[in-house]
Amino acid sequence: MKRKYWFYKFRLADQLLTSFGILLLLAGGISLGLNYYLHQANLEKEVQMKAISITRSLQIAVKTTRLERIEEIRQIVAEYTTLPGVLEVVVLDATGNTLAHTDHDEGDQPYEAVHPELKSAIQKARNTKTDVYQGMLLHGQPALVHILPFTIDPALQAGSPAIAISVLDLKLTEILHQFQQGVAKEGKI
């Protein structure tokens, strides 16, 4: 009983061309997958840098503004919400009370009550006095949260630090990034 495979029925040149085509498709698929993975990693790094930039500038603004003039801090926080991809910006004092929040309705209650899923991350940032990043779903949108602890008054170094929080929309940031790349390819930027 002799068995012949359909692939052996073709000439050698056809077999080589078919094998080369399959190899080319496989290499192209791997290349596209790797390119997508690298693009996503680069995009996440860009979002992190934007979050750092927002929280660091908030830190400077709060340190240079007297706490009696809280309206100025609230105005600065409100201006950050006009940036594309920014969902929330919050400043908490050392006791955990909200000094400024992008949503004035939520600003009257403790931030940890509004977003209990961030309670452990905020406590970690307070205890370690280092930046904390956390991914979360906010209102059904994937978001990146950057929490930055800082000391308002250098004389109070031993106390609990104040907290600056920025929440960025990952989906909108990805769409904006793709749009900017498309415009740049057309030569309009």
TrEMBL record:
Q: Can you name this protein? A: Single cache domain-containing protein
Domain of life according to the entry = Bacteria
